Amino acid sequence: MEEKLIYKKPDSLNELKTHYCPGCGHGIVHKLIAEVMDELEIREESIVVAPVGCSVLIYDYLNCDGIESAHGRAPAVATGVKRVHPDKIVISYQGDGDLLAIGAGETIHAANRGENITVIFVNNAIYGMTGGQMAPTTMPEQITKTTPYGRNTDDVGFPIRACELVNTLVAPFYIERTSVHDVKHIIKTKKAIKKALLNQKEGKGYSFVEVLSTCNVGWGVSPIKANKWVETAMIPYYPLGVFREEKEKV
């Protein structure tokens, strides 16, 4: 019987042993970005910006140009790169502590200006790289290294919903929240990333894709339980779906 090739590693993904923990969703998102780069034929014109966090080494995995920024400053760096090289596809790839804590100002103002960049935000509800501390997206009552009795919303406030926050602004063109906790949602996440990068290629403006992911090591559970927790705990608080597909009319 003649063999037929039905899948291969994306050309835009480097051959590299992963540094991510088993069960982490970052590797899945990396692969999806690489597949979309291949399909849109944009690898040679793409530049990925990574700040401090678990995503810090994304430029090692993607076979394209990459820049590391200071913690939280990826949107500012991406803005500068895009304005100097408007013909490039610029991706700001960030985690929750980076995007919503130290980088909250950069996040809001880049979105508010409607910069023609793509922001991919991986939300795993915890600081993964630094040991499992509470993040801006940590769920109420969630146990972390800095909330051993659970997140107390009376003391530290509620988790920040990034898509809803960005959606209050006029300038963003496209906002969607997805997940990678199962195959069906991984497929939807790829479609969202593709749409966001295509928007940038067509000059439509700022696109923001939030991806709910797991940090089973930081959460202290198995990968199977972590994926289930995304479904049962995170999604009810962070509803999936498209929040906007064009700029608001003023």
Describe the 3D structure.
It is a single chain. With 250 residues, the protein is an alpha/beta fold. It has a single domain, classed as Thiamin diphosphate (ThDP)-binding fold, Pyr/PP domains (Rossmann fold). It has helices at residues 26-40, 58-61, 74-84, 96-102, 104-113, 153-156, 162-166, 183-201, 216-219, 223-237, and strands at residues 46-50, 65-68, 89-95, 118-123, 174-179, 207-212, 241-244. It has a 7-stranded mixed beta sheet, sandwiched between helices. Strand 1, helix 2 (58-61) and strand 2 (65-68) form a beta-alpha-beta unit. Helix 1 (26-40) crosses helix 8 and helix 4 crosses helix 5. The longest helix is centred in the last third of the chain and has 19 residues, at 183-201. It is globular, with a radius of gyration of 17 Å. The relative contact order is 0.15.
